[in-house]
């Protein structure tokens, strides 16, 4: 059957791969043939080969216009969370539908990871009771629908490291219901909907940062139970090929030990946000790499975006958000910032984010 009547199938495929990602759900509803095409791995490979794939950032963001009252104390309110898709430089933001059964959008303090055409949301707290959840929900970016995944096994955990490759989500550390730091780790096969235990880390790590690069799951910083907020500067790395943790790397974070703004670029360079600048790790030494524009120095969030890095933040707490892309010079060392357009409704601090290629 012809993809588009009257045209050779190769021409029909060239037409389909040019449709923006937010119209995929419409495409698959047109015909069985289009549904098969759009859901195929070849469709996304063609988009990538032709330079038509879209580099998106899935952002977990507070909504300062909506607040939740807890069931335990009506005097305590917290802002709702929402999941959005943002393609830097475009004057639009797509807010994803609420998770089924979660009228307030998404759980507080949940973690999310991008795996292929799926966005995986793990754990968090119930928005009203603050009960810790083991739930897993998967948003299919092609069909625009949620489905329930296999629950996070074992005891409940919060504030764990989370990162993914093209197939698997890895988590490690965090703390249990009694606020004891954890060193256990797990891997979630999204297509198989199966959790598997990983070997324990060498150290307990609460509020650690998870990154995935070069076939390895990097767990950075965190603190042990008795330290309670006194962050370590060390890191541990799980090698997916060997199934083992490498020895602990001491003093990775240098003088600023808060790990949440750490990031690998697509060359494997490690960066972190400091008070007014972006730092980069050279060997074992952190150096100032690029001064931040003054209007992103509060609530700063960084993410990779294609070949570069973007930063989102505001000038003052609660202020309007701004976005800049880091533009590298000829020798990849000298660089500057280019301001990108953002939609006016893009308000609320960014709590977490991950990358998607569509």
TrEMBL record:
Superkingdom classification of source: Eukaryota
Biological process annotations from GO: negative regulation of cytokinin-activated signaling pathway; regulation of phenylpropanoid metabolic process
CDD domains linked to this entry: F-box_AtAFR-like
InterPro entries in alphabetical order: Kelch-typ_b-propeller (IPR015915), Kelch_1 (IPR006652), KMD1-4 (IPR044595)
Signal sequence, renumbered to the chain: none
Name of the protein: F-box domain-containing protein
